[in-house]
Amino acid sequence: MTRNVLIAGAGPGVSGSLARLYAAEGGSVGLLGADEDVLTQLRSDLEAAGAVAGSAVVDLTDDAATRHAVTRMGEQRGHLDVVHFNPSAYREKDPLSLTPDELLEDVRLGVGALLSVVQAARPFMGPGGRITVTGSMAADSPWFGAASLGVQKAGVQNLVHSIDAALAGDGIRAVSVTVRGLLKKDGPFAPDNVARALRAAIEQDEADWRAEIPYTG
């Protein structure tokens, strides 16, 4: 099935692997991210593989800019079948050195930006639409040395449950895939394998839908 896919927080890791996976299926992929060089390279890779791809540099913590970029991607494609949310902020500070402002800044990216993306994408999504999020074991097993990451992952996991409940009546479902392991270049937690788990999550039977799925490799 050919899909129009939007990936927010696109980069060279899991999100890049997911973009290539959907492109290999013939999907049209829109990329939103902060690093122009990374986006250019990823878009070039997708186009070289014969896929239709678009990209836009955007600061996802900027609500107005994010909504504009998502709307533009939706208008270009006519509709969106899959929206994937990937970003998080990694700040190596423990709870005794992390400031409230730093925590809020990180949560603005790792959690709050999901609202900007989903609300802007909603007019372009219909029954069968899917929203996926890259989750992490940091949600319930945080490392104190990067305290804000655990807060972000717990928050976004919780928010996905609310988004799924709010949209289920319209036939649109949301799911976070909790990666229970450290990302590595090779092995079960290589980006390509995590991307496959995210891709598989949208094929759930709606009657037994789960808004959070653990990936244990």
Automatic annotation (TrEMBL):
Pfam families xrefs: adh_short
Q: Which residues cross the membrane?
A: none
Q: Which InterPro entries match?
A: SDR_fam (IPR002347)
Keywords on this record?
Oxidoreductase
Q: Which family is it part of?
A: Belongs to the short-chain dehydrogenases/reductases (SDR) family.
- Its name, as the record gives it, is SDR family oxidoreductase
Organism of origin is Nocardioides daeguensis
Q: What is the lineage of its organism?
A: Bacteria, Bacillati, Actinomycetota, Actinomycetes, Propionibacteriales
